[in-house]
Amino acid sequence: MLTDPDYGQHAARTPPEELLVFSILSRAILDLFGSVGLTADADEAKTARQEALIFLTQRTGGWAKRRNELCDAIGIDGDDMRARVVRVLEGDTLALETYETRGALTHVAEARALWVHEKGAIERAREATIEAKRYRRNVSTSTSTKPPRNTITKYSEVRPIIFKLLDRPRAFKDLITATNGDVSDSTIRDVLRIGIEKGDVIKPESATYVLASVPQTAVAAATG
Predict the structure, then answer these.
(1) Domains (ranges, CATH) in the chain?
(2) pTM for the complete prediction?
(3) Using one digit for the tens of pLDDT, what is the confidence trace for 123-150?
């Protein structure tokens, strides 16, 4: 479908460095649509499929840059490769026809289900961001005089505000900035601490927080 060293030319005529790139890209295709047989367990297989999905479909960020660099190295249009993968994920079986080893792509249904889930996660994160921005705008325009800092102190009021902002990894100072300083610093710390204790919040990095329900692929895309 996308990369096959034997497609259009004899493998013996392909330079070793190009064969290596073909191997990397082909492995990504197999990880996404195949059995992911090189992994040790189901969790690793799931992670490999998610990472392959990001690598092959992300429009921007580090994953997309790396994909396009590899494609450029062997004369393939990275955007065209992405478009073909998306066509398969969206249900177009004809997009598989040019991939000579398509018989190994036995998990197309799983890849499509993952694609639907990830698109929904991205959309939910986008809506949460819009709602958080709307909240900040409403706070700033609700009165003609800027309210004093830390006016929102109740845990029950602070928790939903902070959780809506944790659609992507954010540092504590990012939460302060996002809420315009109107939310109590100490209550934000309580929300994060209790969230971690209950398993609702995780720390993908030492100084950042994100909801545990946010898929790791969305976290990677946000930090890529």
Answers:
(1) 11-106 (no CATH), 121-223 (1.10.10.10)
(2) 0.51
(3) 666 666 677 767 666 666 554 455 456 6
